[in-house]
């Protein structure tokens, strides 16, 4: 990387450290919220929290009811999605009560919590606070909204959010870490151009965000959902190389063995970085209805057992996130009942 990237990273890491020190003074917290004292230096990779295995990924609708209904044999933790706008309803005013509630539920159940920050949606809902939405959040090709993550202002605000989260939750042993959504912005070329995108800007911004976030949660993990980086897919590998040893866990949102774009452009990174980064992937709705021959084929649905084995042996995952998807849509596809059976048969696994 050139001087520009190094300068950008140095600035970001310095900002993160300053934010972590000042978080307790400037973050509105609940009366009973403890402030987490940061260590003198972030923990090295080998000393960070590491509770691999099966995790259940649930949404905001299920989380307030606790995790009893979704937990069972072999489940090491839960991943809960939180919209950025819910965590920071106004600039510099943070609301972490939902995370504190869910962390208490995880602790009571003896499992880990991963906090997934949503700044991208696939439905007609804006995920970001108004001060970000009005200029930096735009319509995407998935009937939702995407944030312009290559913009320095957006990155600085995500860094600030991660610093506040670390200041409150990093000390808790059941807080496994924080996650950021997929790298794909889901915007066409004309939109990318009009919003000032370049693959170099995006590469540098993601490196800055990930390295800063690992400094802000110095005992915990940062889960990076990578898939596509428009106009230079090779930069995914550069980003991954730049965060080796920092506590980043690299993975993606789709376990779809018959997807040609994933097979060609994304899955090779799992093998390339096996043993160099901790790895994860996720079974989302598309996995539960994935057919042999991909979505355009008329083959049988992949079994959940075969999808699990693909993730374990081909993607070499340490963590596996399963959507709490209770419906069989379309009929004949899979749901959480099928996933639970696979988890129970394979309560522990190694890549």
Q: Which secondary structure elements does this structure contain, and how are they paired or packed?
A:
Blueprint lengths: L2 H24 L26 E6 L16 E9 H4 L9 H13 L2 E7 L11 H7 E3 L5 E3 L4 H18 L5 E6 L8 H6 L4 H18 L4 E5 L9 H8 L5 E5 L7 H6 L2 H5 L5 E6 L1 H4 L15 H10 L5 E5 L12 H10 L6
Parallel strand pairs: 1-2, 1-10, 2-3, 3-6, 6-7, 7-8, 8-9, 9-10
Antiparallel strand pairs: 4-5
Helix pairs in contact: 1-5, 1-7, 5-7, 7-8
Folded structure, characterized:
There is one protein chain. With 351 residues, the protein is α/β, with parallel strands linked by helices. The protein has a single domain, classed as TIM Barrel, CATH 3.20.20.80. An 8-stranded parallel barrel has the order 1-2-3-6-7-8-9-10, surrounded by 4 helices. Helix 1 runs parallel beside helix 7, helix 5 packs parallel to helix 7 and helix 7 packs parallel to helix 8. The chain is globular. 46% of the residues are buried.
What is the gist of this entry?
This protein is an alpha/beta fold and 351 residues long. Helices cover 38% and strands 16% of the residues.
Key features of this structure:
38% helix; two-stranded antiparallel ribbon; eight-stranded parallel β-barrel; alpha/beta; 13 helices; TIM Barrel; 351 residues; single chain
Backbone CA Rg: 19 Å
Sheet with most strands: 8 strands, parallel, barrel
Give the termini distance in whole angstroms.
31 Å
Q: What is the general shape?
A: globular
The ordered string of helix (H) and strand (E) elements is HEEHHEHEEHEHHEHEHHEHHEH
| Known CATH architecture | Alpha-Beta Barrel
Helix content: 25-40%
The average pLDDT value, as a whole number, equals 90
Strand composition percent: 15-25%
CATH homologous superfamily designation? Glycosidases
